[in-house]
Design brief:
Helices cover 44% and strands 22% of the residues. With 289 residues, it is of the alpha/beta class. Helix 2 packs antiparallel against helix 9 and helix 3 packs parallel to helix 4.
Amino acid sequence: MYGRIKSNAVLCLLLVMILVLAACGNQTETKTDANANNAAGSDTTTSTTATAEKADLTISAAASMTDALNEIKKDYETAHPNITLNFNFGGSGALQKQIEQGAPADLFLSAAVKNMTPLVEQKLIAEDKEKTLLKNELVAVVPADTKTSIGNMEDLKKAEVKKIAIGIPESVPAGNYAKEALTNSKLWEPLQPKVVQAKDVRQVLQYVETGNADAGFVYKTDALTSSKVKIAFTVDPVSYSAVEYPIGIVKATKHSQEAEDFYNYLQSQASLDVFTKYGFTVPSLDQEK
C-alpha cells in the first residue's frame, strides 16, 4: 500500500514538472514571436520612411531653359538620389493655363512676369515663394550659311527675307517681346505677310536651323545652343519689356519640402553658374523680388 502511494506521488511530481516545462516553453515561444513581430514592424516602418523620402517633382518651365535645366537635373539627382525631376517644357502662356486648369506641377519657371502674376493673384503660387530668378535678351538669328546680309530690323524688309519666325505672341513670351519690338519699330504690320508663328521659342529656332525661315526672334540663350544659326543682331532692349524669368512654388504641390529644396537650389551659386554658362544673366540683389 505504501509503495503504491509512493509511486503515485512520483508520477504526480513528474506530471507537475512536465507542465511547468511546457508552460516555460510556450512563454519563450510567445516572446520570440513578439520579438519577431516587433522586428518585422520595425522593418515595415523603415521601409515606409524610405518610400516617403522618395519624390517625383514636376517642373513646368519655359522652353528656353531646356538645356540649362537638363544639366542642373543631372547634378541635382546625383546629389539627391531619392528625388526625380520631371520637366514639362513649353511656352510660358500655355504652362500658365495648364496650372490654372489644375495640371500637376510643383514649380513654375516662366519666361515672363506676365505669366506668373495671374497665378500669384489667384493664390495658385505659394505665398512668399516667388521671385525673379534670371534675365535674358532678345536676338534675331539667321541660318549659319545664309548669304543675306541682315544687321538690323529694317533689313527684315529685304526681298530675300521671305519668312520670319516668331513665337505665338499670345502664349510665347519671346514672340510677345518680338511683336513689341517690331511694333515700336513700326514694322509689325508691314512684315505680317512674312511672319510664321511657332508654338515656342525652340520651334522658332528649329525653323531657322532647317531653312524654313530666313530669320527668327529667339533669346540669346537659345541662339548660343545651336551651331546651325548665327546671331544677326541683338534687338534694342529699349524697344521691348525687360525679359525676366520668375520662379515660384505651386501651392498645390504634394511635395512642399522637396519643392522648396529645389527652389532654393535653383538660386544657389552652383545653379546660377550653369544658367550663366548658357547665356542667362542674374538680376542684381536690388532688383530681386
